[in-house]
Description:
mainly alpha; two-stranded antiparallel ribbon
Amino acid sequence: MTAWLLRRVIQALFVMFVMTLLVFFAVNVIGNPADILIPPDADQIERARVIKELGLDLPLWQQYLQFVKGALQGNLGQSYVYNEPALRVILHRLPATLELAFCSVILAILIGIPLGLYAGLRPDGILSKIIMTGSILGFSLPTFWVGLMLIMVFAVQLGWLPSGGRGETGELFGVQWSFMTRDGLIHLILPALNLSLFKVSLVLRLTRAGVLEVMPLDYVKFARAKGLTELRVIGVHVLKNIMIPVVTVIGLEFGSVIAFSVVTESIFSWPGMGKLIIDSINVLDRPIIVAYLMMIVVVFVTINLIVDLVYTALDPRVRLEAQEA
């Protein structure tokens, strides 16, 4: 188990090294931030001074080495726009995106798994067909359109919920969170709901497919023949055996929610990392863009590692393979 875990950590470090190459060179060959950041009326001396100050006068490979050296020390560069360490700027926005991602994934679990379980246990029922039809809408409707409709109905027409912003926040462990106050929770409802619709449909259909596959198997029939209650058969023998693909999807979707919540954050003016990256791309703030992408890589690598560990807890066969390796 220790050797397996060590091998997975080495693989993760190798992936992160390759991604530093891809991300840094891909971002730094696009455009010239000097053209955006330096005023058009600046003379050549002033222009050369700013370019040297930003480190843009160095060859690209030297800039990369400086970036790697700084990254190993926890410094991913200085933001051109905010004049602060890029990592600090991103970490300041991270709690807003994290709480949005957590809420949407929790909604996907609380709604998707029970509905998928019901639809799988009663595939021919009218309610199951209504649930599956609703899941198609969750897949089909564009996120930006759903967000605009939610604002139009619940904020403009009914006036029940705010149309945007994060609302009042409360402090927990030195970090400001929206869910600590009633006003913040109210502001969180619409963006979290908008972000979770696709995930709910995905988890729902995955759970239903797993239930339909597992129910006819012999071990389920044997569990019923032993006289176990239906609740125990479903909770222990069915649900546990369909959780591996569900956990995989939930883990990957959690990473994608953190990385790609750009549309929802823009529509609801949510001050998270997604809105920050859009603003940074507009002004070609390279350190912010590179730091953001590297943070996303770290998030995905970490989530994959956690998902692999959860596998070993859910499936004894995976645990044995890990021990043999």
